[in-house]
Design goal:
Layout: E1 7-11, H1 18-31, E2 38-42, H2 45-54, E3 61-64, H3 81-87, E4 91-94, H4 97-100, H5 107-119, E5 123-128, H6 132-136, H7 140-151, E6 161-165, H8 179-196, E7 204-208, H9 213-220, E8 227-230, H10 237-246
Parallel strand pairs: 1-2, 1-8, 2-3, 3-4, 4-5, 5-6, 6-7, 7-8
Helix pairs in contact: 1-2, 5-7, 7-8, 9-10
Length: 250
């Protein structure tokens, strides 16, 4: 069944050593033994096994930050979806802007990665979002439609897919779209998903991009927003928990 709302996922990015990561999830686990919604952490690959083991008796979701589209092979430095699952991951992020724009990953590659993740029964967190230039040019809707059409994997359902809207210009900048803009964009995405996926209107839609404790409540109170994908703020257990509770989690 679809994830319980609110859904608040923390992308640690390239941050954290073993002691730091285990201390962070230890503090979260003490508060979230039985979360009422869905709380998740996405540590770097080096911490995935230890974090998953630490949270094995807890309902906090653990995921990877990316996966390769192939099952195995001569891909030095890459990690397959099967390896993530073997390390204890239940989910994986694909299509984050830092890979789309920083590493040149296109929609076709992201779709292949998402398909590989679904084949391993991992929950896919598919990120989409426009750059500042696209936003200023009024191209947001066209960009999001193109990214969805190119990135959605076959077999996507509300049970195995979450879509995260992250305007690139808001990630890590402290800037966010207005609440009206977020609401309108998520409502449009809800309609697009209903046209492209069976029961697609039930696919969870997250907002990401400078989500903090002081704006989380307003953002997650919007009708079409089911939760948040949190970046840097997820590295502080107290702040991350505050975001979760601001969205209605406990």
């Amino acid at each position: 069944m679809p994830l319980a709302r609110p859904i608040v996922l923390g992308n640690w990015k390239m941050n954290g050593l073993k002691a730091d990561g285990l201390a962070l999830v230890g503090r979260l686990a003490a508060r979230a033994a039985h979360p009422t919604g869905t709380l998740g952490v996405f540590p770097p690959a080096t911490l995935l096994g230890p974090v998953a083991q630490r949270l094995s008796a807890n309902r906090i979701l653990v995921g990877g930050q990316d996966c390769h589209h192939a099952e195995s092979g001569a891909f030095t430095g890459s990690i397959s979806a099967a390896m993530l699952a073997d390390a204890g991951a239940k989910a994986v992020i694909v299509g984050h802007s830092e890979r789309r724009h920083g590493l040149g990953e296109d929609d076709a590659l992201i779709r292949a990665k998402a398909g590989a993740a679904l084949a391993q029964r991992l929950l896919v967190v598919l990120c989409i979002g426009e750059t500042e230039a696209e936003y200023l040019a009024g191209e947001r809707d066209a960009v999001l439609t193109r990214q969805l059409d190119g990135s959605l994997p076959e077999g996507a359902t509300p049970e195995n897919l979450v879509v995260a809207y992250e305007p690139v210009w808001a990630i890590g900048t402290g800037r966010t779209p207005s609440l009206d803009e977020i609401a309108a964009t998520h409502a449009r995405l809800r309609g697009l998903m209903a046209e492209r996926v069976a029961d697609g209107a039930a696919v969870a839609l997250l907002y990401g991009g400078s989500v903090k404790a002081d704006n989380a409540a307003d953002i997650m109170a919007l009708d079409a927003v089911d939760g948040a994908l949190v970046g840097g703020a997820s590295l502080d257990a107290d702040g991350f928990w505050s975001i979760y509770t601001a969205g209605g989690g406990a």
